[in-house]
Amino acid sequence: MITKTNLSSYLSVALVVLLIALLTGCAAKRPFWGDVKKGLILEYRMPQEQTLKYQFTSNMTQDMEVMGQAMQNIINLDLLFSAKSKGIEQNNHLLLITIDSAKTDVQSPQGNVSPDMSSVFGKSFHMTLSPLGKELEMTGGDSITYSMGQGGERTLSSNFQTIFPDLAGKPVKTGDTWTTNDTINIKEGGMDMRMTFVTVNTLQGLETVAGYECAKITAKSTGKLEGEGQQGPANLYFEGDIEGNDTWYFAFKEGIFVKSISDGLTEGNIAVTGAQKMTIPMTMETKFETKLVK
What we know:
This protein is mainly beta. It is built from 1 helix and 16 strands. Strand 11 (177-188) and strand 12 form a beta hairpin.
């Protein structure tokens, strides 16, 4: 027999079951990362103690004309590093970046140099990363150095200043764009250089990369190179215009960066002052790739 009390209990249970079903149904239709039709919500989400391993490769070809003579420098870098999440502070990710291995070689008119970089293997520094991919702070990176012989001490820290792509901060659908600003500062080898970029990113759709369902984003960058330095008795002043193209992939469900391919061109001049004054035309072609390997 169903009494009023039993009926009330049954109704309460039924309402709870219905509410759970509705909530579950809504979650199934609209996960917290959104969807490509109504808008993807792109954010870095790295659980504490998660470790991601990346391989970064770069190639830079610099062409100059000095007193009518063509000169070329080629610099290659192959870097393997790990990013380990150490938790969240004020909504930002605390990462421990460890250099697993590194190799570089420099080809120039003065000869080829392949320095021993074993001194950086296993060294770590701290990075604070915002949910949208801004490298807010790096601590200890400048102290991780290796020797280039007569070229002085070098550090790898500048390679990490914009290593994680910047996200939109709003739901984005295919064809939507967002603009980001970045700065890279390089202070080493007697040089002090600054590169500033404005990048327009466009969501192209979805693509599976390295086993992850990813948002595919293309980007076009424009920027400026400014800097100065000293080489012997001569003072050097750099200026140039930068253009770049990128394609990068972000696993929106997991909230992790998976891969990027970039190429860039800088056209500018080096003004030389001192005992001898001259202006040296310069171009730099760059190619970068960063990819998740584990």
